[in-house]
Every structure is written in C-alpha cells, then in structure tokens.
TrEMBL record:
GO terms for molecular function: glycosyltransferase activity. Residues 41-185 form the Trehalose synthase N-terminal domain. Pfam families: Glycos_transf_1, TreT_GT1. One of its GO terms (biological process) is glucose metabolic process. PANTHER family: SYNTHASE (CCG-9), PUTATIVE (AFU_ORTHOLOGUE AFUA_3G12100)-RELATED. Homodimer. Residues 224-388 form the Glycosyl transferase family domain. Keywords: Carbohydrate metabolism, Glucose metabolism, Glycosyltransferase, Transferase. It comes from Myxococcus xanthus (strain DK1622). Belongs to the glycosyltransferase group 1 family. Glycosyltransferase 4 subfamily. InterPro entries: Glyco_trans_1, Trehalose_Metab_GTase, TreT_GT1. This is Glycosyl transferase, group 1 family protein.
C-alpha cells in the first residue's frame, strides 16, 4: 500500500478578510458539482520542499469543500531517489545521460508503486501526480478509471534530450498537465491540455502566520542569531541550483561594508534528495571559522516557526537561484513585508515585478550590490516589502490556487462525466464564503 500523509482540517471561511473576497466567493459555486468526487495527490516526500508545503495546505481545503481527497507517497530506496534526482536535474538541463541500469532502477520502482496504487485505488476520479519521481505511473496504471493530471513544478523548458526522450513517452496517459509558466513547457509534450497555474502560499500556515515581533526575535536568539545585528538570509533546499555558495560569496563582498552583518542559510534535507547532504557539507567547509554565518537545518530543530521568524526579522532575504521552478520562499518572505534579492530565473520575476518586493539579479556581484543597497536604505526596503505583501495577497495565496484546480476538475468532468457519488457534507458555511 502507498503511505497516506496525515493532514489536519482547514476551513476556507478562515481566509475571509485575508484573501480577496471574489476568490472565496468563486470557490463556493465551483465546488457545487464536484462534491463527493474522490481525488488523490501523489508525491515523493511529505516534507522538505515547496510541493509538500503546498499539499499540506491544499488537500485539507479540498476536503473542506466536500471533495474527498488523499495525499499519498510513492516508495523508493536510496538508489531510486539518486536516479530521480539525476532525472530532476537532467530535465532542468543538466548534462549527462541515464545508464541502462539507472533506467531499470527507475522503472522497477515505478512498477512496484503502480502495483500498490492499483491494489489500493479506492476509485479515485482525479489523480494529481507531482514532478518526475512518480511521473510514469499514469502509463503503468491503465486499469484506473481516473482523470490523470501531471503537475510539473520544475523548469523543463530546455531539458537534456536524453532524459526527456526517456520520460516523455510515458506522459501520453495524462489527461492534462500543469506548469508554473508557459516558458517551462518542454518540447513535444505528449499532453494536449496544458494549464499555467503559478503556485501559492498559505497565509495561515505555521510558516506564514503572523508572529509577534518579540516572539520572532526570541526564536532567533534561541537558535544563535543575534537580533541586534543586521541579518541576511537564504531559505532553500541545499541544492546547487539554489547557489548557496554564490550567496556566501555575495555576503563576503558586503561584509567589509557592514562588519557585523550575519548570514543565515536555512535549508531542509529531504528524503528524496540525497544530493542535499553533499551541498550541506560543501557549505560547512566553505564557511568554517566564520561565527557570523549560521547554517541551519530541519535536522537540528529549525522548522516552520524558525523560518517564519527568519523571514520576518531579516533585513534582506536572498533567493539567488540559478534555475528555479517558482521559489515559494520569495512569496513567503514578501508576505512578511521583507524585501527580497532574487535570481532572474524561473518564477522569481513574476513575484518581483518592477518596483515591487525587491531586486532581480544575475550575478554574485549584482547580488552583493543589491543586498548592500537595501541594507543602507531601510526606508526604500520597507516600501518595496510592503508592495510585495500586497502583490502576494492579490495573486499568490492558497485560495487562488484552489480556484485554478477546481476549474480544471470541472472541465475534465465535463469532458468525461463523473460516476454517481454520494454527496459529502461540507464543513464550511456557504454564507460566509459568499460574504452574506
């Protein structure tokens, strides 16, 4: 059996006054014809990245609307996840090729997961498959009468042909695909119905819920950050595409001008990303002996609350990615009205339109200049952060992503009608969602 991720309950009514009213109103009527339908989201890990953070908030909201939804995980050993990491990198354009042994490892694990899926299908009407790790399961599970959606969260605009040629024949079984940006759609995608839905953050999650300033500062002092000194932070996986070593070099350029400046590199080590340990060790070696650089991980107790505090208290947050699907940490930081210096890649520019949120950079030198500029001009930094907060409120909160998903489900159900289902009671108050 596939593992089911245990999730809590959420109510859409609690977003009233936070997310735009028109979005909450639309969710009420979009969900009417879908109540009682069964949906599954399938991914590779329950923690350590944007996909898991989105699903932890999104799945309970599906259920709140009466769409019976589970979040399940594929199985795999270390060898399998080493191969999927290579596929992940290859689809983002990394050089190299898969060996026949690696292909066999990937497909053997996929066959086992397909068997577990078929024997525990529970008559799902919709199946969302997230990213490359489980991507072949739609083709390997032909007996499931579901509408299959592949949600690709990474930049596959210029995939390494050897990796894409291996994966793409298995994608024909999908009814629809979702990408963050139109530019990310790979060449000759064998899926005709393609949607562009940017990700979103949950303003009521522990990572984004407002913290009293005194509590946020106490949390940082507890983990070794001195809150009376200026602070620059990057929050991301320990991944070479996030360029943490580039952030260190940019910080080292700024440090002579701001002698007491601290740098926090907060990263998660996820079970589906064995390469993260190598990057973590490289960072430790590169920063050894500098007491003002703090390398923080989920394995030493740095979780959502600590990240929340880091993003809220930092003077500047950096997301200097070299390749990026979206970069949810940018929206998370802007929600706290903290300015961001972001790499001009992937979905980061759509979060930092001109004059809003911070600055876009291409090089280590530009990153250092932008950091120093914002540190020296706190009033300008505050204004950019405030504009960023409003941009996120209008475009990048979880109810908007739920609207996108429900529009797609309604379309797929219209193309191929759902079987009769019992109507599932919903916990939300429709009057509250309609603002009545």
């Amino acid at each position: 059996m596939l593992d089911v991720v245990d999730i809590g309950k959420r109510s859409l009514a609690t977003y009233r006054g936070i997310a735009p009213d028109e979005i909450l109103d639309e969710l009420h009527w979009l969900s009417e014809d879908l109540r009682g339908a069964r949906c599954m989201h399938l991914s590779s890990t329950p923690y350590g990245g944007g996909v898991s953070e989105i699903l932890r908030s999104l799945v309970p909201l599906y259920n709140d609307l009466g769409i019976v939804t589970d979040w399940k995980l594929i199985h795999g050993d270390d060898t399998f996840f080493q191969v999927t990491k290579r596929i992940h990198n290859g689809l983002q354009g990394a050089p190299g090729e898969l060996t026949e042994r690696e292909k066999a490892t990937y497909l053997a694990n996929a066959q086992l997961n397909a068997h577990r899926l078929v024997t525990n299908s529970e008559n799902y009407d919709f199946v969302f498959v997230h990213d490359p790790q489980p991507a072949v399961l739609a083709a390997l599970s032909p007996h499931l009468d579901a509408r299959w959606i592949w949600r690709c969260h990474i930049d596959t605009s210029h995939p390494n042909p050897t990796f894409w040629d291996f994966l793409s024949p298995y994608l024909h079984a999908y009814d629809a695909a979702i990408f963050t940006m139109r530019e990310f759609i790979p060449p000759q995608l064998p899926i005709s119905d393609v949607r562009i839905y940017p990700p979103a953050i949950d303003p009521l999650s522990p990572k984004n819920h407002p913290l009293p300033e005194a509590l946020a500062r106490d949390v940082l002092e507890w983990i070794g950050i001195r809150t009376h000194r200026p602070l620059v932070t990057q929050v991301s996986r320990f991944d070479r595409w996030k360029d943490p070593l580039g952030v260190v070099r940019a910080y080292q350029r700024v440090r002579p001008h701001v002698p007491d400046l601290q740098l926090a590199l907060a990263g998660s080590l996820a079970m589906d990303d064995p390469e993260g340990w190598d990057v973590y060790e490289e960072l430790r070696a590169a920063t050894a002996g500098d007491s003002l650089i703090h390398i923080l991980t989920n394995l030493v107790g740095v979780g959502n609350i600590e990240v929340n505090a880091l993003q809220a208290v930092s003077d500047v947050v950096v997301q200097k990615s070299l390749r990026e699907g979206f970069g949810l940490v940018v929206a998370e930081t802007l929600w706290k009205s903290t300015p961001v210096v972001g790499g001009r890649v992937g979905g980061i520019p759509m979060q930092l339109p001109e004059g809003t949120g911070g600055a876009l950079v291409d090089t280590v030198e530009e990153c250092a200049e932008a950091m120093l500029h914002l540190l020296r001009r706190p009033d300008e930094a505050h204004l950019l952060g405030a504009r960023g907060h409003e941009h996120v409120r209008q475009h990048l909160l979880m109810p908007r992503l739920l609207v996108d998903h429900l529009r797609l489900l309604k379309h797929l159900a219209a193309v191929r009608p759902l079987p009769p289902r019992g109507i599932v009671p919903v916990s939300f108050n429709p009057a509250s969602l309609q603002g009545v």
